[in-house]
Design a protein that fits this description.
By secondary structure, the chain is α+β, with helices and mostly antiparallel strands. It has one domain: CNF1/YfiH-like putative cysteine hydrolases (4-Layer Sandwich). Helices cover 21% and strands 28% of the residues. The chain contains five helices and 17 strands. The strands form four sheets. The chain has a six-stranded mixed sheet with strand order 1-2-3-17-9-4. The longest helix has 14 residues, at 50-63.
Length: 259
């Protein structure tokens, strides 16, 4: 089973990665935050009490046996910018603005927050490199998945065919209606593959972020991809969904480290 539990926390783990990697995408269960952030909210900018967020983060790291001081996170801005996390982020330093974090340091725990956007987790077992990327519609159309692969290659010498990628829980196509200006950008980017990315029903357009990122990864040379297939908007008992909860919600977290 992909789901695991630890002291009331429930999290999803990919089975595409080897035991050399510690990784989890935490559900919203097992935390201390009240509604509307109930309960394992890991987002510090959504109105929740900061003390609750700190406690929730501590619980998440404890669940995987990682020291909270090993964290390296970023301030998400829907970009394709990369932070190379050579060491943990000093907690008295502000997070850098980026949507990709990469490391080859086992002393670093990568940490990122989501609420409908796609968590992308990366591992190259030959070069001992991991990464997490944040792929909303804007990051996806800008090429965040492709840029992550290119960053792993340029910085660490990773080959795409050696990289495994997990596409995590996020909003599914049935719940993700998008505007015409969004569909135009995806049709321009994906060309003949756009029919696999944009669905049209009753005169409305729906975006398949899972397919969009999978196609992008395949085109970048990645052969090993696992799609969780879990829709955040469909399963509010497990996931925060910005779209389904009309913006009044928390953020779930993805955590990854070299074991």
């Amino acid at each position: 089973m992909p789901f695991h539990e630890h002291n009331e926390l429930r999290y999803y783990s990919f089975d595409i990665f080897s035991n050399a990697v510690t990784q989890a995408v935490f559900t919203r269960r097992g935390g201390v935050s009240p509604a509307p952030w109930r309960s394992l909210n890991l987002g510090g900018s959504v109105g929740d009490d900061p003390a609750h967020v700190v406690e929730n983060r501590m619980r998440s790291f404890d669940a995987l046996g990682r020291a909270p001081a090993s964290i390296h996170d970023v301030w998400l801005v829907h970009s394709t910018d990369i932070v190379y996390a050579d060491a943990p982020r000093a907690l008295d330093h502000p997070s850098q603005r980026a949507d990709i974090i990469l490391t080859d340091n086992p002393q670093v725990t990568l940490f990122m927050r989501f609420a409908d956007c796609v968590p992308l987790l990366f591992h190259d077992p030959k070069k001992h490199v991991i990464g997490i990327a944040h792929a909303g519609w804007l990051g996806t159309v800008k090429g965040v998945a492709k840029n992550t692969i290119e960053g792993m290659h340029s910085r660490y010498g990773c080959k795409p065919e050696n990289i495994s990628v997990g596409i995590g829980p996020s909003i599914g196509v049935d719940h993700y209606e998008v505007r015409d200006d969004v569909t135009v950008q995806f049709r321009e980017k994906y060309g003949k593959d756009a029919e696999h990315v944009i669905q049209t029903r009753d005169g409305k357009s729906y975006l398949d972020l899972w397919a969009a990122n999978e196609i992008q990864l395949h085109n970048a040379g990645v052969e090993q991809i696992q799609v969780s297939g879990l829709c955040t908007a469909c399963h509010l008992d497990d996931w925060f969904s910005h779209r389904a909860e009309k913006g009044k919600t928390g953020r779930f977290g993805a955590l990854m480290a070299l074991a």
